[in-house]
Design goal:
Elements lengths: L2 H13 L29 H18 L1 H4 L38 H10 L14 H15 L22 H11 L3 H4 L37 H10 L15 H13 L11 H12 L18 H7 L2 H9 L22 H14 L16 H14 L25 H4 L5 H6 L1 H4 L12 H20 L1
Helix pairs in contact: 1-14, 2-5, 4-5, 6-9, 8-9, 10-13, 12-13, 14-18
């Protein structure tokens, strides 16, 4: 057996001992029982343990980048986020269907996960299943040391009244009587006389909601606004107004607040300006460096924009979850930001701008691969690359050893002409990289690249 064959066989054998892929976190042999209102039977100890383990895995992948692994609001993205992510251990739950200062229902937490936090860095996690959001909710409550409330604790909303012709005007009178204007201002601009002195429970300055923006954390329907008036927002200066208005007054107040929402501004027509607006609104810089600013949770996009093929980026942004977990060494997953096609084109224009590429740019033709070079590159790949990179099922690497992306899709993701400069001197391209200098010479780099592209293109065709 040749050295190449022996090394490949060894890699395959080791892969059989690898832990399960982080793409679908495992919970062991115990079935993860779903919680169902139609199945009220209590869970066994094993089922509860399985749910806790699965909830932790989901929480770490989807939430800990901002909220921290222990739920203390200290994830690696937290420094760049405004408003700051919730510290579940020391801060109260703001959005509940239960009375002020009461614990939330599990359904309240799961609904917050589903809805996200409009106007913040937290997107809606509606791409997760109902049970996955429930598992995350259970784990968040576990981190907080809080037992969820029961359905009997819910503050029921009265039936919504039919809007009379003077409903909004009546709602304004209620707004003034309850002194909402002291914080939110006479016109709802968030500029009331108390607005400059507002602080949360931790002493941090907090802004009163500017109703013109239509960005309500809990939601903007009249029922969601009514519930906020009833339950208040613990941890902030927003009190509960339960008992301070009649049912009809509550619905009128909700309609008045809705009436203050301004017509949304049209997105910029110029693609670069639109891309920058998307990055700002989604707070992408919390996780990524973009135009020299941002965090290290995800790839540095000033660097990645030089190497990635724009068709692949377009497909990825349209459905990030379909691509799977690109970097196995990180815990975190890219959420689906629900970008439309124009927003994606704006982001691509921004990436082209920072990498000094044209956009749109011609799709490069497939490189001509010399079969002899590709064959020669097999051994160099196994010796220099397989220690950290998986190559699909062709040359598998144990998950515990994978420090870089699976290279089986390299021909779809990366620019062919970018590889030589990167492999020759990774630190020169990106000083913060964990990629080691392989000490490969120009010819060796060429044959490894030929092997990878040939293997990847064949995998795509098959």
């Amino acid at each position: 057996m040749s050295l190449s064959s022996a090394l490949i066989a060894c890699a395959a054998a080791l892969s059989a001992c690898a832990p399960a892929s982080s793409e679908v976190p495992q919970t062991g042999s115990v079935h993860v029982a779903a919680i169902s209102a139609s199945s009220p039977a209590p869970l066994t100890f094993g089922e509860r343990r399985a749910r806790r383990d699965r909830g932790r895995q989901l929480y770490v992948a989807e939430c800990s980048g901002c909220h921290g692994e222990r739920g203390e609001g200290d994830g690696p993205a937290a420094a760049a986020i405004d408003p700051k992510p919730r510290n579940f251990v020391s801060e109260r739950f703001k959005f509940r269907s239960t009375p002020y200062n009461s614990p939330p229902l599990l359904a309240d937490v799961a609904e917050t996960v589903k809805r996200g936090m409009p106007g913040s860095a937290m997107p809606p996690f509606d791409f997760l299943t109902d049970d996955e959001r429930a598992l995350i909710g259970e784990y968040v409550l576990f981190l907080a040391g809080v037992e969820p409330a029961h359905e009997s604790d819910v503050l029921a909303l009265p039936t919504e009244s039919v809007a009379a012709s003077g409903s909004v005007a009546h709602g304004r009178a209620v707004y003034e009587r309850l002194q909402c204007n002291l914080c939110h201002g006479d016109q709802g601009f968030g500029d009331g006389p108390s607005s400059d002195s507002l602080k949360d429970d931790l002493g941090r300055a907090i802004a009163a909601r500017d109703f013109r923006q239509g960005l309500f954390r809990r939601g903007k329907t009249s029922a969601e606004l009514y519930r906020t008036f009833l339950t208040g927002i613990p941890g902030t200066p927003m009190p509960s107004y339960q008992g301070n208005f009649t049912a009809e007054e509550g619905w009128d107040l909700a309609r008045y607040v809705q009436s203050l929402t301004a017509t949304p501004t049209r997105p910029p027509l110029e693609p670069l300006a639109l891309g920058r607006r998307v990055v700002a609104e989604k707070q992408c810089f919390a996780c990524h460096v973009i135009e020299g600013r941002g965090g290290q949770v995800g790839p540095n996009l000033d660097v990645s924009s030089r190497k990635l093929l724009f068709p692949w980026v377009r497909q990825f942004l349209a459905d990030p979850r379909a691509a799977g977990k690109i970097y196995p060494f990180t815990n975190y997953r890219m959420p689906d930001l629900h970008l439309d096609s124009n927003e994606i084109e704006g982001v691509l224009t921004l990436l082209a701008h920072v990498s000094q590429r044209s956009y749109p740019e011609p799709v490069p033709p497939p490189p001509s691969i010399d079969a002899a070079q590709a064959s020669e590159g097999t051994l160099f790949y196994v010796l220099k690359c397989a220690e950290c990179h998986n190559l699909g099922s062709v040359i598998p690497t144990p998950l515990a050893k994978q420090q870089g992306p699976d290279l089986i899709h390299i021909s779809q993701r990366l620019r062919y002409d970018w590889i030589p400069d990167w492999v020759a001197n990774p630190m020169n391209v990106y000083p913060a990289t964990s990629m080691v200098d392989t000490n490969l010479g120009p010819h060796e780099i060429d044959v490894v690249r030929a092997f990878l592209w040939k293997t990847s293109m064949e995998a795509v065709r098959n």
